[in-house]
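Let us work through a complete example step by step.
Step 1: write down the sequence.
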Amino acid sequence: PRRVRSLRAVAPPMYLAKDEKLPLALSLSFGLQHMLAMCVGIATSGGMLHANEACWSFRYDSELCDRQSFLVSCSWLASGLLTIIQVFRLRIVGTPYSIGTGLVSVMGTSFTFLPMGQAMITNYIEDAKATGDPRCLPNMPYKDTDTLVTDCQGVGVEAYGKFLGTAAVASIFEILIALTFNKKIVREKMFPPVVVGMAVLMIGGALISGGMKYFGGGVFCAQNMLSRSASFGGPQICNESGEVMLAFGAGQYWGLGLSVVLMGILIQMLGSPYLKSTFLFWSMMFGCLVSAIATYKDPATGETLGYWTDTRISNAPVFTFFWSEIQFTPGFAIEYFLPLLICSFITTAETIGDVKMTAKFSKVTDEAEIIARQQGGVLADGVNSIIACLCGSPPN
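Step 2: predict the structure and record it as tokens.
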């Protein structure tokens, strides 16, 4: 009789060392998979939620709100270009230092700085309205509606510029740590293994938290669900799924999320080593296919709605680059410097832990080499964060 293939006979995913040569197709698959997994997170922390603080009818800055897509583009551009610096490790001539890890260390905007950026934009606009700032113009149209609100034009832009400037100065801390990282006291007293390990653990916890928020409909509606219910007595509606706008945690959102998870499980159970190594890509593509085919019928109007819409793509310019639409003048807010400095310390610990784990799974075992790569990673992280801020993107 014909034998049924046993699940135990399936080979495990491929384990690849640092200098192992890969076929071009496999390399492109790995890169595309990682890029797709990071895109939404970079967009969310890299400008979408910053600009969103200036998009409320009661807290409105049309100049910043209208540039939401531009901020996302700046974050994507900065993350891609600065990854090159981090991945291609360069020796600094005449010094014992290097910049970059020489490992698969992909750069992206940091969620650590997000609450501070949001707070600065919120406080600046509210203070401008309270003090009668002449830039706050009453009876102005709200977005594309007939509703009239107070539009504090340019106040949010100023606040975002000061956030970028202050964060850039705080990022110098990482450069100083990198230049003294070879000293044992810096590694063991300021960043002991237990602290670095907890930082890596918290990164994983934050990613799980973010994933659950997206599962239910989106980060914004998840974070504002309770406050919306307490203030207005109704659920927060999620608007990140095309024409379909449902309350956070709706079954339709969970169904789309489960389609991705179940496809990933199926690939891990039955797939080849190649499919297992790239299961994220195929799982996301399956989820995209399901969401493109699926529709939702509004019970109130009977209208059939889709989970995809091309509105933002149609309204976006064909080409954009840093500073092309608006320039954020870097400023400095002394009252926010210490919190941003703490954020910089946190991201330094995260970087040290990330590089150590990346080195471990890249089969880099020599302790001195790991320390050297951690130094290069922290230095690149600090330099890249300053460059990102000058380009209109939050720190990486």
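Step 3: interpret the result. The chain is about 60% helix and 5% strand.
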